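cron nightly-structures :: item 1 of 1
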Amino acid sequence: MSRLLVCSECDLPSVNMRAALMSMGGWEDLGEGEGARFHAKGDVFMMSIPDMHIRHDGLDAEAERFGIKVDDVVVMSKHSAKSGKPALTAHPIGNYRDNEFGGRERALVRSSPALMTDALRRIVRYNDVEGIQTCFEVTHHGPWMEHPTFYIEIGSDESHWGDVHSAEILARVITDLEPEDHTVVVGVGGGHYAPRFTELVLDRKVNMGHMIPNYQLEGADDEEFLRMLNDACRMSGTDQVYIHRKSMKGAEERRLRDLALSAGYDVPASKDFDPLQ
C-alpha cells in the first residue's frame, strides 16, 4: 500500500510532524511539482504544500500527476478549539451540509477506518503526557479528495501547536501504523469529540468510519437523516451503524434506529463485538 502524508508549510504542527519524521532518516527528496515538494521513504510519500490543506482540493490527484501511486492519505494538522485544551486527535473529513471550512457541500471523502482507528489506538498508547485529550473528532471540513483520508492533529491553540513532543508522538504513530481488519461501523450521535466512539474502538474489535454527531442531526427530517447516513456508510464501505443511544432521547434513538433498519443497515450494540484484548 502506498501512503501519502500531507504537510502544510503554514501549519506549525504539520511542519513539526514532518521534522520529526525526517529526523528518523531514510527520506529521499523527489523534487517539486505544481508548487509542492515531495519526499519518499519506501512506499510512504510526503507532500509539502505552501497553503492550508483544508482548502486545497485534489491533493491526492496532484501527487498522482507527479507519479506517485496513492492508496490512502494522512494529513498532518493543527486542531483549533475555543477550550484551548491540549489534544491529540484523528478524524475523517467531509461535509454533511455546507462547506464553510473547505471541501464540497454535502459531500464526504472516503474514510480510512482501519488506518484511522489504529492511529487513535496508538495515540492513546504512545501519549505519555498527563492532561492531553486523546480522542476521535467527528467528520468535518475539507479538502475534497478521491482517496481514503484522515487527519491527525495537535490541538488546541497557539500554546500547544508548537509542542515538539506531541509532534514526535504523532510522527511515531504515523510510522508504526499497522491497521487491523475489524468490522467497520458508522457512528451516529454524541458530541464533536466522540467520547463513546473513542471508548468503543479502545475496548472492542471494531473500526470507526464516518461519524454523524447530534449537532448535524438537529432539524434533520427522515429524508435528510437517511441522506447523511447513506453517504456516511457508502464512504466508509459498511452497512453497520452504531448509535450512541445515551446521547439522545429514547424517542429520537428509536426513530434513527428504525430508519437505519428500514434502509437495510444493521444496528449492532457494543456487546456484539469481541473485546479488543
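cron nightly-structures :: done
The CA atoms of residues 17 and 167 lie 5 Å apart.
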